[in-house]
Amino acid sequence: LGFINRLHTHHKKSRLQSCAFSLAYCVDTERIMGSNDAEKGSSRSDKRTYTQSIRQKVTFEKRRFDVKTLPADLHRVYKKVEIERGEEYALTVVFTIRTAIELHRAWHNTLLTAKILQQLKDKYKLHLAWELGVVKLKFHIEDGLYELQYKVPYDYDSEFQDLYMRIAIAYLDEHITVHQGLIYQDETKAGKHTAKTGLFIRTFPGRLVVYPFEAATCAVIFFGGDWVDFGIAAITGLASGLVEYLLVTIGGSATLLVDVLVGVSTGVIGGLFFDSNIDGIGGQLCLPSIFLGTLYWYFYGTAFVLGILEIISGELQTGVVRFLAVAVKTFILSLGTSFGMQLVLDSPKEVWFDTVGNCGTIDLSVQWWRIPLYLACSASALAQYRFPHVDYWRGLSVQLVGYEVQFQIFQALMKRQSRDFLDTASSNTAGAIAAVVFASILQRTVDNVAYYYHARVLQRHKGKFSPFGEFCYKMSEIYIRITNCLGFGKKNDVVYLRMAAKLKEQREEMENPSHSRTEIMLTLEEEMVFIEAIVQAEDLNIWALLMPTVYQLVPGSLIARLWFNVIFPPLLSTEETTIVSDVIDGTNNFSSFTIPLVTPFQNDEVNIGAALLVVAASLALGLLIGFVIVEQATLFLKKVFCRKTDDNLTASESRLERQKSERKDARHFFSHTINENNFESVEALSESSQDDEENGFNENPMAEQAQKEVHFE
User: Fold this and answer.
1) What share of the chain is helix, strand, coil (3-state, %, to 5)?
2) What phi, psi does 604 have (nearest 5°)?
């Protein structure tokens, strides 16, 4: 942004508009520039800004990360690299590897994970390469001299997606040391930076509350069930959670049976209720809605979209493997459910097709409770994703925007294009685009409002803000106190609010020449709270905000219906057709005869496979188009609306600011690249070569030796 600002220094007034989107990016520009001044104390800081934030005034305890807590193989490689490169370099390698593992475990997008790893590699000149597969991760250290392989099973975890990304950015921007980053990672995994309500649903047994709630709401809002099916799905959902809890507690190879046994329990309970003599239940259930609603928890439908997204982006092997792996997993769930039906029903196939007529009896488009029920279903999905309770309003708003755009466009096109899949493709693409654009606006707005709070409590700004800034700070403080009173927030946030006043007083004493204070010391507990405040001041991870919405839009149940049609082939109907033959023996006599034509009874069900590809591909394209729109709109708005009347920027400062902005954008956009990430960039290669020459390092020792031999001859 610096070079744009220099082109417009002759303008004396800023042309900021009242558009919310442009306001967010303009404030963000000021935030980047202002925080850079506060941290580095450049000549552009004014009298209202501290030359250094409180972080640079505090004397930290000499806490060191205990490398003995590392896994044996990683510790062994660390010791080797430490001897060759030094402790700081070796710990940075460990930090980068652990960041990749935990982001992958939390189901962060592999394309975006590679972005942050590449930035850490470029920043600290790491000789590290990686292969991010579906389950297996490979790390090649010191140009392949050492290799580490990990099998990392993934699970939904939006909170850890956000936290581990913030930790990496804080270290990347030199706001924390590598020891502090590694210690904070350990504390995060131990739950020390998670609210108590979040810890309750993070693991069993508290997690059992979410299973029946999600199964019941999904059965009605997505799969055509009624309120009776709602109740039965809640029972089967609780049973599936208990089965998983039991197998996870046993551990070992028992966890491999989770999918099939969950399917069996669902089929058994659903079949027993259907075959019962209870009035209003026996024979009147929509079994597909109950089964699909219960198994919705285990349908990794997001993987279908991510697989196509990876294929489009060039990660062919990862994308294809991910797509096939989830298809097989879904088949096991469907087969287990069929086994359960077989145990309690005499003719599972006939029952399956008989219950289809009981589905779709409620027209959701005319029901006032459609949106509240969808929000309830989305809240259960956020709980499954371990989304922080204090931020539920963000996730629900993005989910609602994506769903409503998808629903309304589909309703508008359904009658006009009932004989093709263009209505499905168009609605899903538009829903994904709307979700991405709204999530980007929300992420920027939240970050910019939170900037004033963090600038005050971390003492990056001296004196009062503008009226708008003071309003944002007060709202942030009130929100933190209210959520803590309700039990949703983190206790450390309130603790730091009290600590901030103490730190401000101690800083004034230290900067007073007549006072005896020479340093600001923190206790071990205060330091942990202080580091948490620094990490929380980093930007929100947009993919952690967007992932639950993608989960609600994706077609996990479509592949299940396809497998059910394989297990229970659709019924066939016979239709007689009369055919008239050609002229016989040169006369004008014609003959006719009748033949039977056999056609599928349920054409829509037969086309489920095609619908799956249409929905998954359209959602993937919607995500890509959405990020492109946001990226180009960001660039346009910054050029048109964001002007800074500052003529003290040097060429080097402009370049640094531009690179900082590009690196920030690269963490959000799939297609965004910078020179350090582009191996074909001449500038990147020349910079890399120059850095290696300055460090006295040659990446090819054999070539260096050959050069010496040639020179000797």
Assistant:
1) 65, 5, 25
2) -65, -40
String of DSSP letters for 221-267: HTT---HHHHHHHHHHHHHHHHHHHHHHHH-GGGGGGHHHHHHHHHH
Neighbours of 497 (CB within 10 A): 16
Max Cα-Cα span within the chain: 125
Amino acid present at 49: T
pTM: 0.82
CA distances from 288 to 219, 223, 331 (A): 9, 7, 15
What are the angstrom distances between the C-alpha of 605 and each of 219, 332, 358, 618, 667?
A: 18, 19, 16, 20, 40
| Cα 439 to Cα 88, 220, 395, 400, 550, distances in angstroms | 37, 27, 9, 11, 11
How would DSSP label each residue in 543-559? Answer: HHHHHHHHHHHS-HHHH
Q: What is the pLDDT of residues 674-683, one digit of tens each?
A: 444 444 433 3
pLDDT (tens digit per residue) in 302-343: 888 888 888 887 888 888 888 888 888 888 998 999 999 999
User: Residues with Cβ < 8 Å from 639, sequence gap 6 or more?
Assistant: 4
Cβ burial of 683 (10 Å; 0-12, 13-18, 19+) is exposed
Q: Which residues of the chain have pLDDT under 70?
A: 1-51, 280, 417-420, 555-559, 571-611, 642-651, 653-654, 657-658, 665-666, 668-713
Separation between Cα atoms, residue 490 and residue 165, nearest integer Å: 19
CA nearest to 675, candidates 690, 696, 693: 690
State the Cα–Cα distance between residues 169 and 176, nearest whole angstrom: 9
* Exposure on the CB side of residue 431, measured as CA atoms within 13 A: 30
Q: What are phi and psi of 576, to 5 degrees?
A: -90, 135
Reading the block at residue 542, the tokens are 């947009």
Pick from 484, 486, 472, 630: which is nearest to 546 by CA? 630
Sign (positive/negative) of CA torsion 349, 351, 356, 357? positive
- SS3 labels along 295-309: HHHHCCHHHHHHHHH
649: Cβ–Cβ under 8 A, 6 or more apart, which residues? Answer: 2, 5, 6, 44, 657
Q: 444, 24 in Cβ contact below 8 A?
A: yes
Show the DSSP H helices in 487-541 as ranges.
491-511, 524-536
CB 544 within 8 A of CB 158: yes
Q: Round to whole Å and give the CA distance between 90 and 129.
A: 15
CA distances (Å), origin 457, targets 32, 42, 407, 534, 537: 17, 21, 43, 10, 10
Q: Write down the number of H helices and E strands in the chain.
A: 28, 7
Who's near 22: CB < 8 A, 6+ residues apart? Answer: 16, 637, 640, 641, 642
